Amino acid sequence: MTKIYLRPTGFVESPQRHEGESLRLAGTMLWFSQIEYITRDTASTQRRLVAVREWDGFAAALPQSARARCALLLERITAPRAALQMGMRTVNLEQPQVMAIINATPDSFSDGGKNLDIDIAAEAAVAMTTLGAAIIDIGGESTRPGAALIGESEELNRVAPLIRRLAEAGAAISIDTRKASVMEGALQAGATMINDISALLYEDRAVEVARKSNVPVVLMHAPSQSSDPHKDGVYDDVVYDVFDWLEQRVSAVEAAGLSREMILVDPGIGFGKTLADNLAIINNLAIYHGLGCALLFGASRKRLIAALANDAGATDRLGGSIFLAMKALEQGAHILRVHDATETVQAIQVWRGLRDAALQS
What we know:
Elements: E1 3-12, E2 23-24, E3 31-40, E4 45-51, H1 55-60, H2 64-78, E5 84-86, E6 89-91, E7 97-103, H3 118-130, E8 135-139, H4 152-168, E9 173-176, H5 180-189, E10 193-196, H6 206-213, E11 217-220, H7 238-255, E12 263-266, H8 275-283, E13 294-297, H9 303-308, H10 318-329, E14 335-338, H11 341-360
Parallel strand pairs: 7-8, 7-14, 8-9, 9-10, 10-11, 11-12, 12-13, 13-14
Antiparallel strand pairs: 1-3, 2-3, 3-4, 5-6
Helix pairs in contact: 3-4, 4-5, 5-6, 10-11
């Protein structure tokens, strides 16, 4: 069976100068002038670059089934993403937003132990929200390669007091967990988003918890939904394999009762993927807008930066983290999940100034 994918590309700074030659990307501040039409079967992958101004004619000449698939993908690529309602907070996705990471763990790869003290963690979170982070993502279990699995009660005890304090202060909080009971406890404490590295597959009950909660849910790709999310990372072509997996998972979760506008997708940089795999996904990130969901990207301080930059330690990867965040932003990522929130917010503000100037010229 031949599979079809569309990747928006050929981004333009000032679409108003070229009327009719570009389309807006997923409700963001980006416009694309070309569409890469990709077909894939067991024998080969074929690609053709088509200008937006020529797309209607190109698509009309395709077989009916291919035409219908392209229409669906293009509709998803261009449709604005609904704002996320997180308690009293509304997170607008027309402009890029920052999700700041707080690891309430003793063994996280980059900042393990620092945020076990609730006062220190709360102070850091408040500072990041004050300076522009839209969401605080709180996790109580490390998912780095080789990390030990911990019990549900221990994980919840690490995160619930901090969530409760920050929720009382009005923060929009995401709970980073794959365990249904931790999701429930975190939501009761005041979390208003679920961020699950297993895409609600680690426990059968997770989908029902997510459905009943009526909060936004992040579905991340990992090659395994076992206790080790990094194993079994073997792909025919990682970009398309991840797309296919996420497309199937979004459809399954939607069929279970969650609205697609409440679902975010994350291609899972660093989870069971080689350096080459990660780079391929990042270079082709815009293809995932074809899933019709808001796109979350997280490569902050990850090992791929060290692999490209003199084996830099986890706390010495700011430059690489910022660059990867901006690379994702310039392909329409709606939310950037980062450790260095203040610096990333500043980078976005400068980018936003450039975009505003281009759109007004």
